[in-house]
Amino acid sequence: MIKTVIPAMMLTLASTTSQAADPAIGKQLNEEHCIRCHGSEVYTRENRRVTSLPGLHKQVRFCEQNLGLTWFDDQIESTATYLNLEFYKFGIKP
Ligand code: HEC
């Protein structure tokens, strides 16, 4: 009984909260799929398009959909979290 209940709970948590975001996974996904067209320099260039955290999530999804990767929400979250921690630093105090 317990064996079946716990994975179900974990699935619910993963899909309803952003706690599934794992920057280590995001780093890996970014390296695997995202630095083909642009290197990581687009994330730090002077006139970068992304100017907010919600904007970053939107842009990650946009590029991901263009690639036809069909990522799950937690993969989007992880990648956006990684890019934010590493490059954009929205809402992170220096
Ligand atoms: C098929 C080519 C391609 C791939 C692969 C790609 N992108 Fe992009 N990406 C673009 C283009 C084109 C732009 C817009 C560049 C511009 O405006 O000059 C862009 C811009 C961005 C920006 C905005 C940079 C800024 O100005 O702040 C982010 C963030 C981004 N991509 C994330 C991703 C992520 C995450 C992935 C992997 C899922 C990815 N990209 C994969 C083509 C790609």
Automatic annotation (TrEMBL):
UniProt keyword Signal, yes or no: yes
Keyword Phosphoprotein (UniProt): no
Cleaved signal peptide residues: 1-20
Keywords: Signal
Name this protein carries in UniProt: Green heme protein
InterPro entries: Cyt_c-like_dom_sf
GO MF annotation list: electron transfer activity; heme binding
Domain of life: Bacteria
Native species: Candidatus Thiodiazotropha endolucinida
